[in-house]
Specification:
4 helices; 69 residues; mainly alpha
Length: 69
Amino acid sequence: MAEKLGNKPATCRKYYVHPCVIEAYTSGALPEVDTDGNAAETDAELSAEELCVLNLIKASARSKPSQAA
């Protein structure tokens, strides 16, 4: 991906990939993608892979205390 975007891998990790995805990958905790016929029916819908990442990010946000003061 980095080469395709013309960036170094560290740039892609810092700016294009949510930190919780990298954390889940490095800890071996990436969830399995549910491919039980949940393919997007229109371009406006999320694919099974996108839904998996969205749920991972939402779970990460719920498990961390708010940064707002």
